[in-house]
């Protein structure tokens, strides 16, 4: 076993090309075992094994700095830079994050999890080097799928300006998370088909030098080219053709499915956990497909993550022209939605909460100033969402809810969600976003509310003294607090489902002054800039006491939900206790 | 005079090519007179006169839809679509905004003022057309400078996916606001030099058909090519070479200076108003140039608007490699700054408040998660800033101040600003943003405060009963309220300069409970998600009354500052009156 003796790049450099081939096999084997038990990003890592070995053979990390885009292809790098145990031994699997991380190793330079960042970040390292008159290569590694993102294309354009060493390795496996979308992929295909010799070349058109490696899973070929560009005095692209999922037949065959995987059976490739139950993704897709059949103007949009909104390959086929994947390009997704709405269409853009922030300006300018009736649905926007620091879902309330004209809704059940979605698609008055609740999807009573009657909250339990506003996910917690208050204090609290994150029901809030002395808000997100603070402001000049519950403003990483909830007193007993102190 | 008889595109269609040449002269004359008296975007409009005439001659607006990027080149379009009076008669100059605007005309489809949006917005109109099985051309008009923006490049990539009619007119005057920066401009040059015949072609590399018009200020040549692409069944680029500022010698010669102009003397081209007094731009540049000389690691960054941070052409030359213009590419500007800081450099990114929102994700992810010590300075982030709806400066507090790790500072004087900037550049702990105050720059006393002692506010006048927290711009208003309270009510109020937008001085706030019953916050921005609400939340469970002053969450357009201030009770007498009601 070579891998067991690799404690850093210096140990890679001792190997022969043949030995490196064996090392690659060992690394894939370890990645396979780990993925089958632990889950994680799969395909991208399997394709990058040889290139990572070659990079560490040729370059002198960490003096030469390698910056990985989005980090989905950074596992082999971690294995070769002192972190192999996290891939070889089950008890160490959680020693590393799924993303590049300077806290883990001097061979990582940024904590990165969003796509399309590597070129611009690497350009920064290169510029810092040049300002200080220092030496060393800076290498950005970016997948073809990430190239469609605005930041990546900006970075590709800026690179030439650097006028110093910057090596951009384009890992072209002819796939994004799903299939690629966008005109630039016709050029990548042309370049692959002509082994890099076509005159029309996106990278050269960006003013950059260009090398092509047809056998991007061949260590010798990669070493040869990396040696040619090492110490280049100007920015250069090395375009390598790799096979996503290489070495595991099911992953080579079903590339989209194997971009990321949960634990699975290695023999059959079958997932160990059945995932057939209904969730907000499947519910969204079912509703939308039905709607599309009745109305050709309805169109669903994704930015490179079609299954987020439930559109698996077969569903995409079913939707035909009424499903649009713009590629990883959230800015264009929102501008497109605004344009479609302006032209009389009915667009619905489904996006992870963590990624909706990639298009803040377009939501504000292209969409909200124009007040076009497009719908945005944010998924996993919750403390119960993804828990990596780069994919947090509890920051979208301050981000979205303070933009004028936008109506941001917080359903608490499947039925409320579908009713809101249907209302939003049918109305022509304004842009609407819907924040899906976190945790398991719950069903509730049928909805009769007219959501066009803006900012009218619903009192679901009429009481006195204490009013509990439970927004979205935490409506159930508000009910639990009410139960606690009843059983512990004998108080019948008022419970309110606010629905609207973006507006106050001033009439209702005013009326609470009559027979309530405490108002409690509970929201699934950071408190700063959020919903509760608006309620606190409303009551600022009155005798009403206001308690806001939500999360502290901080970047959490790989957190334990229950711990975070307790730390923030998001707990029925704790809240009841706090309220008691004010009565 | 032909222009006086142009009441819509139908009147353009009646003219011969020769007559259209005369019309172009008349339009330029009117634009010149208007600009000399009224000011506005200059160079881009002068270059687009012939192309606009040709577009309206060939296409059938509004059935065919023309979408202008950023709108700096939309004046000729307005002249030909029923709005000529606003360009011919001084009393009507203010009938139109400086931007495309659907409220003005059925020939405008979006209110647009940020760059790089046209292709994606136009793609939306095209998609809506196709979903509905309708007819008509959709034309995006985009300048070469706007092409470097992420949204534009994403849109260019997405366009091919449309698989239907979309005509992208690239108005190439070889200039951004200042000179262009980025590798793609080498390709535009190659295309111009080869009259569009070079094999290496950015647009073809994006999968698009391509036409080139070398004489982009020749109506006949333009008509000829537009007729060829009219009703194209697929996306196509028409690359036209134009002369920025064409027809006015000073503007042709000094293109950067004449991108936008205030009122001027037509004979000499000299500005009617002297603009030599010190302002935050010149102060920033002077400080930075001095700092750069002492420290080669200091670098100033702009995204296509170098003079915002004071770097005129001569100052840029002086800064050399220590000044970076990434082109219109705010996302890359922030990622680059983060990378430079990670590599030991000291980057300062100067940006308009309205444009900082174009890089929200990079500030949060690339910069703040990584906690790199880059500095961002936001200009014109004030109710006193630009007053077009697309360029508002009063939304950056909720946008920036709720991002974890970022320290967002609000100086009230020149001295405080420079002290903060110097502290920020020298520290290595965290990312810092500085919000410049609005209105005229004021000088104050020397600053001794250590800004590294985070979230410590300063009590500048110790009183009792009422505490006034005046943030940034409105620190002076807080003092005025204190004076008012003294003279009208005989109350010695406490006045506080909070400095920190992103954190609470909990110790100080707690201590106010002893002998104060009312806390007032005044901030230069919308209240929703802002500073004051955090104070209201802090005091929510106490008897302290809190009054928050700032702006309502709304998109204002071409507003009158004094009116807006009154509407929001941002007035010393009004605030004193409100406070009185609570005592």
TrEMBL record, chains A, B:
Residues 278-444 form the Transketolase-like pyrimidine-binding domain. GO terms for molecular function: 1-deoxy-D-xylulose-5-phosphate synthase activity. It is an enzyme of class 2 (transferase). Keywords: Isoprene biosynthesis, Magnesium, Metal-binding, Thiamine biosynthesis, Thiamine pyrophosphate, Transferase. It comes from the Bacteria. Its EC number is 2.2.1.7. Homodimer. This is 1-deoxy-D-xylulose-5-phosphate synthase. It comes from Coprococcus aceti.
């Amino acid at each position: 076993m070579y891998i067991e003796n690799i404690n850093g790049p210096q140990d890679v450099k001792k190997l022969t090309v043949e030995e490196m081939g064996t090392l690659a096999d060992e690394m894939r084997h370890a990645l396979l075992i780990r993925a089958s038990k632990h889950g994680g990003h799969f395909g991208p890592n399997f394709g990058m094994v040889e290139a990572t070995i070659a990079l560490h053979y040729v370059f002198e990390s960490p003096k030469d700095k390698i910056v990985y885009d989005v980090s989905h292809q950074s596992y082999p790098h971690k294995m070769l830079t002192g972190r192999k145990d996290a891939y070889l031994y089950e008890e160490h699997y959680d020693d590393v994050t799924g993303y590049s991380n300077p806290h883990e190793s001097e061979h990582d330079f940024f904590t990165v999890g969003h796509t399309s960042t590597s070129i611009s970040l690497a350009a920064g390292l290169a510029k810092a080097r040049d300002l200080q008159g220092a030496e060393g290569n800076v290498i950005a590694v970016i997948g073809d799928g990430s190239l469609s993102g605005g930041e990546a294309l900006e970075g590709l354009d800026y690179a030439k300006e650097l006028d110093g060493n910057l090596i951009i390795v384009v890992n072209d496996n002819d796939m994004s998370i799903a299939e690629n979308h966008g005109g630039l992929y016709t050029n990548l295909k042309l370049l692959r088909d002509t082994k890099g010799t076509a005159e029309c070349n996106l990278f050269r058109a960006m003013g950059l030098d260009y090398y092509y490696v047809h056998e991007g899973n061949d260590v010798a070929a990669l070493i040869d080219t990396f040696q040619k560009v090492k110490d280049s005095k100007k920015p250069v692209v090395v375009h390598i053709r790799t096979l996503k999922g290489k070495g595991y037949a099911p992953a080579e065959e079903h590339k989209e499915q194997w971009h990321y995987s949960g634990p699975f059976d290695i023999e059959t490739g079958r997932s160990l956990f059945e995932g057939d139950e209904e969730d907000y993704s499947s519910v969204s897709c079912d509703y939308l497909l039905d709607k599309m059949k009745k109305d050709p103007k309805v169109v669903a949009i994704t930015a490179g993550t079609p299954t987020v909104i439930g559109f698996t390959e077969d569903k995409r086929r079913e939707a035909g022209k009424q499903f649009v994947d713009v590629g990883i390009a959230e800015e264009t997704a929102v501008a497109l939605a605004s344009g479609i709405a302006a032209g009389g269409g009915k667009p619905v853009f489904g996006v992870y909460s963590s990624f909706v922030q990639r298009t803040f300006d377009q939501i504000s300018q292209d969409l909200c100033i124009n007040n076009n009736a497009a719908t945005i649905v944010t998924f996993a926007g919750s403390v119960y969402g993804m828990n990596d620091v780069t994919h947090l879902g509890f920051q979208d309330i301050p981000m979205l809810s303070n933009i004028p004209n936008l109506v941001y809704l917080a359903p608490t059940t499947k039925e409320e969600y579908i009713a809101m979605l249907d209302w939003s698609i049918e109305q022509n008055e304004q842009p609407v976003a819907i924040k899906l609740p976190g945790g398991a999807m719950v069903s509730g009573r049928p909805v009769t509310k007219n959501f066009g009657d803006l900012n009218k909250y619903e009192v679901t339990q009429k009481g006195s003294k204490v009013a509990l506003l439970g927004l979205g996910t935490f409506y159930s917690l508000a009910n639990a607090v009410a139960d606690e208050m009843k059983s512990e204090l004998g108080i019948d609290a008022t419970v309110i489902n606010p629905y609207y994150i973006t507006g106050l029901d001033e009439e209702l809030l005013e009326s609470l002054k009559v027979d309530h002395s405490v108002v409690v808000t509970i929201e699934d997100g950071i408190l700063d800039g959020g919903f509760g603070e608006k309620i606190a402001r409303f009551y600022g000049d009155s005798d009403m006491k206001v308690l806001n519950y939500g999360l502290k403003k901080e970047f959490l990483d790989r957190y334990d939900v229950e711990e975070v909830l307790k730390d923030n007193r998001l707990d029925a007993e704790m809240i009841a206790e706090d309220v008691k102190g004010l009565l």
